[in-house]
């Protein structure tokens, strides 16, 4: 089973993000690590879930990640379009982080709408590429199918996995039945050929012995 | 000669002028913008716009006056750019403006063929002159206010009488080709008067610049340049009148010497030169061209144009020949003097008045005769001598040339962490508490100037929104108050407004007016006080409730001030800097006595700015250390009494024109908080700037090597350790960061040690080990080196280790060297103030003992007072001994010394066995040489422990220092024996001395009635002396010190106590009780 987008979002919430809080907080020690101390006006790294929570209660301002601006995203989009392979994404959960931040603090992100479209564009490009490569992969004739795909994000993997595994299974089944059928076919053919050849063989043996 | 050009305006006629003091350049161009540049390199000029394209610009009385295409001459306030009024109205574009030298009369020429004359204060209605039959191209006012010259598209140049403007004085017709508008005219024909008495008028006439003599309007000289292919368009004199510059329609710029008419420089640019001005201060010529570019020609005096020079030389020779041959000296003389100008003439006249002709004394009457009547009345020889004198004078420049100015303009005062005043939306301050923003609108009708005060900590106080009624430009905020300051205007004095939001009464704000003429330039806040720096080099101190606490004067213009709790950091000019450097001094002051008194911690020390930079930010780190940064992006921190670079912010930048705008510094987390400004020096208010944390970086050599990187980490952590120590003394909880820094220091030191070992740098390795703080780490190092078969190194480390343990006391004293500078100085202060009354108590507080050595001289100064000396000594000895708690000593010294030795032996055995076990365990893994090393460790441990037991160990003992590690062991045993003896003998001796000194103390008490321990004379005295006797008995080297006076013993006593403590502590260390150690060391510090 692959993870649902909700579950992925949950994972993405553990990513660190910078915030500027407007209150004092002592260091918090959690299982995943220490958070803080928070001091008003001074940037600090906290998990995304905390940042979103605080910003919802107007207790902090989230500093969007470096890559979340038009210039960087445009560059990434350009690279993604021009490269035959997948390019490295600035964040593992870029879509999830983007979604969470657009919800939590649209005002903090410069050119929010443009960033949104760019991210969607990148996603579409990558997804199209992924589907194309899947098609290419499946259309390979030889049976030991191998393909290496780098820089796929978790979201993309989860998106394609159900389809890919399912289709592979189907193909496998089809191929298996096909091969079984073929085998059966061949067997019956073989049977007949071996029979005829054995007859022929015995005949030739006989002729040799006669000589 | 150097030239540079840069973009200034868009395409169109662009004009240039300088402010009256010559500090700033003002340009106005076809885009309708007026820009005020600090210098040619200024990337962020103040810019404001006129109503339409500007054709001419002048500066007068803090007003920028532009002639625009919208038929008006407009005046704008300088430097804010606020529109004042329309000075003149025309029916056509105002093509050119000029102002009289005194700045009182404005003249403008217009495309409607008229020129208008008006007084700047508009006291009289403008006078209109129908000057030309075509649009007026340019105008120029005579510095003596006798004439006005105008040129028009009809090709004429006319001189008008100033007093009676409609009276034509002189007219040159068909000077240049005619046209119908300024845009189509082949030349702008911008004329200029000689700045000295207007003795010459320069007019660009086609391909020549003609100089006309005043009054006679005869041509004096014609200047030309070989590079010029078209016409001259503008002409301009330097302020001193020594140079004349001309700009051509083809982009030629030429500079001539105004005395000798030699061509100094000529260059060729691309576009029509439309504006030209000589920099009044520096040796520069600035031009603007029709493409809107600003052009600078530097050092035009240095490289002469060869051909021009030789040509003029020939001319001069010619004139000389003519003079002597034709013997028409009178004419020649006139000519020369006129050409030479007023200066030369007056010099000759003065010389004549006192009786000189040239350098030769001929007597007053004759000289005057020569001068007035010419050679006709005299013989030829004299005439010739005068002639040669005059011509020789002519061939060299008479007036001082505008040479390179070695002085730097002192930088303007500023408020740290604020953005410039001319911005509409700006930060008044951004600090740890919050942000003050100011918004102003150009619009007169909707005057919504406002101030927004926002607190970082929203729980602390809500945001405040104010109307900016008095045009406040300065602001600062702390957790108690918000302070705002405004500069003076014509009606109002400078003001300081304080919003004391922490006050518990109902009136939360107070406003105070500064005396007339005094302006506030900086505000600093601390706990309970407000400090304002003013233009009178004055620092005014207020309490938060508005009480005027005091006024202090500084030696120069205060640049910036900043406060932290009770500390105040002031920077001020200490005169003019030279060679591009600023001369800035600083003072760190402490407010004491309920913030009413300033005591100096550091004063009159130079601020070490980076070369050729200006101060850009000052402040305190979060921990309270003064910090500053300069325009070269280097942030420096006060380290003791010296400044060390904390962070070179340039390394964090990618773009060359990017800058960091510093907001704060944290020493414990080793970072600088700053806002990155792309392509600017200041951040915009929107979008809200994001603070970056820049890691501190010490600019070490070879930063790309691993060694330097590790050393960087090490140094930073050492710095951090000293900071945390200081913080701890103040009562902060910094244990965590200190431990972290401590661990990191050890780690990096060990890494460095290992690295040096592998690189065969044994000496360096041993030095790293010597830097390690704990003996434990050193043992590890020794293990490591013995593992590597480095016998020599292991030996060395052993010695170092031994020395380290011995010197532990020294190190503890060293700790006081990085004692906070404040405490050092306040102690000095304290001693001065209270030395007479509180001597005893301060010494019992560990005053002398804990003070660094540098403080000792103060005490000596006190003792030298002959009147008080004896009495004081006696009192002191008595007081000291009483406070020393003699009872404890009495019981302690004999008894415990015995028990102690026994406990020592026990602990020694214990530790030895431990070590033996260690070494046995070690043998298993180490080879033979390694075990040799381990045995050496044993050797090293044993004696030091023994030495540590020495009860009489005294850091003041001169013999101790001279001990080398080699013979130390021997000494140690000697001393140990002595110690044992001393322990046994002490009780006996003590008794005898007790008896003996009991009497003495009685005598003393009789004599000394003021003694506070008079009631109980017997007990303290013997105790103190018994102490000294034990000391004498155990320390052989000190036997002859026994009969030294009380004073010396007194000075030793505190150390005695300390050493006892130390001894006890070392015992604990041996017992492996580390916690106890720290506690006891704290105790000893407290004491």
Report on the structure:
Chain A has 6 helices and 5 strands. By secondary structure, chain A is mainly alpha-helical. Chain A has a single domain, classed as 3-Layer(aba) Sandwich (Ribosomal Protein L9, domain 1). In chain A, a hairpin with a 2-residue loop joins strand 2 and strand 3. In chain A, helix 1 crosses helix 4 and helix 4 packs antiparallel against helix 5. Chain A is elongated and about 95 Å long. The N and C termini of chain A lie far apart (71 Å). The mean pLDDT of chain A is 85. By secondary structure, chain B is an alpha+beta fold. Chain B has a 4-stranded antiparallel beta sheet with strand order 1-28-27-26, with no helix packed on it. Chain B has a 4-stranded antiparallel beta sheet with strand order 2-3-4-5, with no helix packed on it. Chain B is elongated and about 100 Å long. The C terminus of chain B is likely disordered. The chains are: A mainly alpha (211), B alpha+beta (1087). At the A-B interface, loops of A face strand 53 of B.
């Amino acid at each position: 089973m692959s993870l649902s987008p909700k579950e992925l979002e949950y994972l993405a919430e553990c990513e660190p993000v910078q915030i500027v809080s407007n209150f004092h907080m002592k260091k918090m020690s959690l299982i995943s690590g220490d958070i803080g101390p928070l001091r008003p006006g001074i940037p600090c790294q906290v998990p995304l879930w905390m940042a979103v929570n605080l910003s919802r209660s107007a207790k902090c301002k989230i500093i969007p990640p470096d890559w979340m601006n038009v210039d960087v995203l445009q560059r990434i989009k350009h690279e993604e379009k021009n490269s035959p392979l997948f390019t490295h994404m600035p964040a593992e959960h870029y879509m999830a982080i983007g979604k969470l931040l657009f919800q939590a603090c649209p005002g903090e992100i410069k050119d929010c709408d443009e960033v949104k479209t760019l991210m969607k564009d990148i996603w579409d490009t990558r997804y199209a590429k992924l589907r194309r490569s899947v098609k290419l992969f499946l259309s390979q004739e030889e049976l030991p199918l191998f393909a290496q795909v780098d820089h796929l994000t978790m979201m993309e993997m989860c998106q394609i996995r159900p389809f890919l595994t399912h289709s592979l299974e189907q193909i496998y089944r089809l191929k298996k039945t096909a091969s079984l059928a073929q085998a059966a076919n061949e067997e019956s053919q073989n049977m007949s050929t071996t029979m005829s050849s054995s007859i022929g063989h015995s005949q030739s043996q006989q002729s040799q012995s006669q000589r | 000669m150097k030239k540079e050009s840069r973009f200034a305006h868009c395409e169109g006629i662009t004009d240039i002028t300088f402010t009256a003091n010559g500090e700033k350049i003002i340009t106005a161009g076809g885009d309708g913008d007026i820009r005020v540049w600090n210098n040619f390199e200024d990337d962020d000029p103040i810019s404001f716009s006129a109503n339409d394209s500007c054709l001419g610009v002048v500066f007068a009385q803090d007003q920028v006056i532009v002639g625009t295409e919208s038929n008006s001459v407009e005046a704008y306030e300088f430097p804010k750019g606020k529109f004042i009024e329309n000075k003149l109205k025309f029916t056509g574009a105002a093509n050119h403006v000029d102002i009289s030298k005194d700045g009182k009369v404005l003249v403008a020429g217009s495309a409607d063929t008229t020129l208008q004359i008006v007084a700047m204060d508009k006291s009289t209605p403008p006078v209109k002159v129908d000057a030309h039959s075509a649009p007026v191209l340019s105008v120029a006012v005579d510095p003596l206010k006798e004439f006005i010259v105008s040129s028009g598209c009809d090709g004429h140049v006319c001189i008008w009488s100033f007093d009676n403007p409609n009276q034509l004085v002189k007219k040159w017709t068909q000077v240049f080709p005619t046209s119908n508008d300024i845009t189509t005219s082949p030349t702008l024909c911008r004329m200029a008067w000689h700045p000295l008495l207007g003795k010459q008028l320069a007019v660009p006439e086609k391909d020549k610049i003609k100089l006309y003599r005043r009054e006679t309007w005869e041509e004096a000289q014609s200047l030309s340049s070989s590079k010029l292919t078209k016409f001259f368009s503008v002409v301009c004199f330097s302020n001193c009148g020594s140079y004349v510059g001309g700009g051509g329609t083809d982009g030629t710029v030429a500079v001539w010497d105004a005395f000798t008419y030699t061509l100094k420089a000529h260059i060729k640019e691309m576009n029509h030169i439309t504006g030209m001005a000589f920099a009044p201060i520096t040796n520069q010529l600035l031009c603007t061209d029709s493409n809107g570019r600003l052009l600078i020609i530097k050092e035009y005096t240095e490289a002469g144009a060869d051909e021009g020079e030789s040509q003029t030389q020939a001319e001069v020779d010619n004139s000389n020949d003519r003079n002597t041959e034709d013997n028409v000296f009178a004419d020649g003389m006139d000519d020369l003097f006129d050409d030479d100008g007023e200066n030369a003439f007056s010099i000759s006249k003065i010389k004549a008045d006192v009786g000189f002709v040239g350098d030769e004394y001929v007597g007053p009457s004759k000289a005057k005769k020569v001068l007035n009547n010419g050679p006709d009345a005299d013989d030829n020889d004299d005439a010739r001598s005068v002639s040669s004198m005059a011509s020789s004078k002519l061939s060299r420049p008479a007036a001082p040339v505008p040479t390179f100015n070695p002085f730097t303009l002192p930088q303007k005062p500023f408020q740290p962490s604020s953005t410039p005043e001319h911005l509409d939306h700006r930060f008044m301050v951004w600090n740890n508490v919050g942000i003050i923003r100011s918004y102003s609108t150009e619009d007169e009708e909707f005057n919504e100037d406002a101030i927004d005060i926002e607190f970082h900590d929203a729980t602390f106080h809500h945001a405040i929104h104010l109307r900016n009624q008095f045009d406040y430009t300065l602001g600062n905020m702390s957790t108690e108050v918000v302070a705002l300051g405004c500069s003076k205007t014509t009606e109002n004095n400078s003001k300081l407004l304080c919003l004391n939001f922490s006050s518990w009464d109902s009136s939360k704000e107070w406003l105070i007016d500064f005396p007339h003429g005094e302006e506030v330039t900086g505000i600093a806040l601390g706990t309970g006080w407000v400090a304002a720096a003013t233009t009178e080099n004055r620092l005014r101190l207020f309490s938060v409730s508005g009480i005027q606490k005091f006024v202090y004067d500084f030696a120069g213009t205060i640049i910036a001030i900043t406060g932290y709790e009770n500390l105040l950091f002031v920077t001020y000019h200490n005169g003019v800097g030279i060679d591009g450097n600023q001369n800035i001094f600083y003072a760190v002051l402490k407010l004491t006595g309920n913030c009413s008194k300033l005591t100096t911690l550091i004063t009159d020390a130079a601020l070490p700015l980076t070369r050729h930079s200006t101060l850009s930010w000052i402040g305190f780190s979060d921990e309270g250390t003064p910090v500053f940064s300069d325009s070269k992006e280097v942030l420096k921190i006060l380290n003791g009494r010296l400044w060390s670079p904390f962070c070179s912010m340039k390394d964090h930048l990618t773009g060359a024109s990017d800058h960091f705008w510093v907001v704060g510094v944290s020493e414990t987390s080793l970072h600088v908080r700053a806002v990155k400004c792309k392509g600017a020096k200041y951040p915009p208010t929107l979008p809200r700037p994001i603070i970056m944390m820049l890691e501190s970086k010490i600019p070490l050599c070879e930063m790309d090597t691993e060694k330097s990187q590790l050393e960087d980490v090490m140094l930073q952590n050492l710095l951090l350790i000293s900071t945390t120590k200081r913080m701890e003394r103040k009562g902060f909880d910094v244990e965590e960061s200190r431990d972290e820094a401590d661990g990191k220091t050890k780690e990096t030191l060990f890494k460095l040690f290992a690295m040096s070992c592998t690189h065969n740098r044994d000496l360096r390795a041993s030095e790293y080990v010597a830097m390690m703080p704990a003996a434990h780490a050193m043992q590890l190092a020794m293990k490591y080196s013995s593992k590597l078969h480095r016998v020599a190194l292991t030996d060395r480390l052993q010695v170092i280790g031994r020395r380290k343990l011995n010197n532990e006391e020294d190190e503890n004293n060293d700790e006081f060297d990085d004692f906070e500078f404040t405490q050092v100085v306040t102690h000095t202060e304290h001693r001065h103030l209270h030395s007479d009354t509180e001597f005893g108590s301060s010494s019992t507080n560990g005053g002398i003992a804990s003070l660094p050595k540098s403080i000792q001289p103060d005490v000596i100064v006190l003792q030298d007072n002959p009147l008080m000396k004896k009495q004081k000594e006696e009192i002191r000895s008595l007081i000291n001994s009483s406070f020393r708690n003699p009872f404890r000593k009495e019981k302690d010294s004999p008894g415990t010394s015995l028990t102690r030795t026994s406990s020592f032996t026990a602990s020694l055995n214990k530790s030895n066995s431990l070590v033996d076990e260690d070494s046995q365990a070690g043998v298993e893994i180490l080879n033979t040489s390694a075990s040799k090393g381990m045995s050496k460790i044993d050797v090293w441990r044993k004696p030091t422990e023994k030495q540590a037991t020495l009860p009489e160990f005294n850091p003041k003992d001169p013999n101790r220092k001279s001990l080398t590690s080699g013979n130390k062991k021997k000494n140690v045993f000697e001393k140990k024996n002595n110690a044992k003896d001393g322990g046994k003998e002490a009780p006996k001796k003590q008794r005898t001395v007790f008896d003996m000194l009991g009497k003495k103390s009685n005598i003393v008490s009789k004599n000394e009635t003021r003694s506070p321990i008079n009631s109980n004379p017997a007990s303290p005295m013997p105790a103190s002396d018994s102490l000294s006797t034990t000391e004498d008995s155990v320390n052989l080297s000190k036997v002859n010190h026994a009969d030294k006076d009380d004073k010396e013993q007194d000075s030793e006593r505190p150390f005695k106590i300390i050493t006892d403590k130390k001894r006890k502590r070392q015992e604990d260390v041996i017992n492996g009780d580390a916690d106890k150690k720290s506690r006891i060391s704290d105790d000893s510090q407290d004491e």
